[in-house]
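User: I'm curious whether this sequence folds into something compact or stays loose and floppy. Could you predict its structure so I can see for myself?
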Amino acid sequence: MRQIIILILLIVMPAAGFNQVAEEINKINADSLKEVLTELSDIERIDALNKIALAISLDNSDSSILLANSTILMSEESDYQKGIADGYFNLGNAYYIQDSLKLSVLNYLIALRLYEQLPPFNWMAITLGNLASINWLIGRTDKAIEYQRRQFLVTKQLEVPLHNKWGAVILIAYYFDGIGKYDSAYYYCDQAFEVARQYNDTSYITYTYTNLFRFKLHQAMADPADKEKLDQCISIGLKALELRNHLDMDQQGRYIWHRFMYLHLAEAYFEEGSEYSIDTGLEYLNKAKSVNDSIESDHADAIRIYGLYASLRSRYRDYEGAIAYYEKGIRNFKKNIPWSEPDYLYEKVLWTFIDKNILRAVYDSLHRNYKRIGNYRKALEYNVLRNKVENEIFLEEQMNTVAMLEADSEIEQIEKQVDMLERDKQIKDLQVAQSRNINIGIGTLFVIFILLGIFYLRQLRLKNEYKSSILEQKLLRLQMNPHFIFNALSSIHNLVIKQNNEKASAYLVDFSQLLRTSLESSREDFILLGDEISIIQNYLELQRLRHDEKFDFSIEVDRQTNAENAIIPPMLIQPFIENAIEHGIRHKQSKGHVSVSFKREDNKVICEIEDD
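Assistant: Here's the prediction. I'll summarize afterward.
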């Protein structure tokens, strides 16, 4: 869902959050500022240097950091609180460009604390928006909503352009839509309508209808049985199309907007499912394709066009046609990925996230469609590609989780320290104390660096131990009882000698399938419980044939356990089942029974194996 939200943000909403910094930079002529520095007063010089620090942050973040630190010291000497706050804002901006998340958030928070002691102004709003964007990016949606609401309240008090106010409130709606709280999303969408109408701007009214249409489509797809919501969604989308002539954007932007609307109207009509709706949806999809072919800019919407064509082919069981569309979409997507050099690291992170999730979905669809037509070689090829992308996404998510936990801990400590200082002293006392505590800060940083080095070495050791453990587990999973393999092959040999070809063939097919699935699953650290159950069932069938149907078996999964969502290590259960057969059933005179059951208990999957 997150990648869909950010696509809408980039397509139909003017720049917000970090992109507001670009507007400030565009207003700055760094060379002219340098020329007049000597003629300025102390306060004017500090403001000018802060603007230069902002202007050079994208191209030379190190110099921006040095300059920002200088303005902080100068502002402390002049007792100029806004200059100190601006300096910390520039540090937060520069550290973010350097991909130093914790230092970026730390300096933004200090700047925000200082800004809160001053009358509201634009840089304070930008700081709140940046903190909201960072928290959303690392998955802290509640925090993102909190900061975004505060940014909207600040912009309402300022004389700022319409897109700043409108962007601040529509982002709140995006965040609520991303977590499925649609009533809250609609509330802030109404607030966006109110902002646009206050400015009497039909263009932004159209943008708001566009976003409301997409939110309604999300809710309708979450509850496909509610046709009324889908009808409302389509009605709002058509209303947005009626207002298209009021859009204030260049030709390229207008083409992208039309492609977006046609594509999602097609998706809505396909979701409705009637013959008329599918025909109407196909008309809009053809329009989206026509617009896409006429423009150079391309992003995820382009590959989704081919994906909708492919899903429509799959609906009519034309799997080869679906495959052709999916593969054409991949070729088109790889040729023209948007913004090969994004202005901000924020955009690079987002587009990497979007690309991988799109490719994972397409690879999965190609895997399933090739499997449907019996081309197992190509199915396996795309399954491998899908798994590779999934592993990359998983590793990135784990790294982001660790970074988020570290940032949470440090931010909490910093906020507590700042709160204590604010309770004990006024901001003026804090500014004076900062000068006295520079040496203490240097010593603290030295200790922190030592602790970080120790922590890094410890993490490196744990990481190496983890890799060794995983390798050992994978080697163990590749092993299968040689007696079972020998006995299975002997059984097949005996059946061939006895000319029981039909049974020998069935036995051989099951045995080969078991070997193949065992080898495939051994490559993964975890597999779906449903896949493991399939392997267990195949293994029990082979053992039952090998032992002349001396036992029956059953596999049960309780209602609380979703076999398609739960994951477990592969080949973990098979040795215990083999033990039950070899030491329980094998020596029993009468016919035996093996029971395998799975149940969920406190977010764990409990497996019980019983024999009689």
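Summary: DSSP finds 25 helices and five strands in the chain. Strands lie at 527-528, 551-557, 567-568, 592-601, 604-611.
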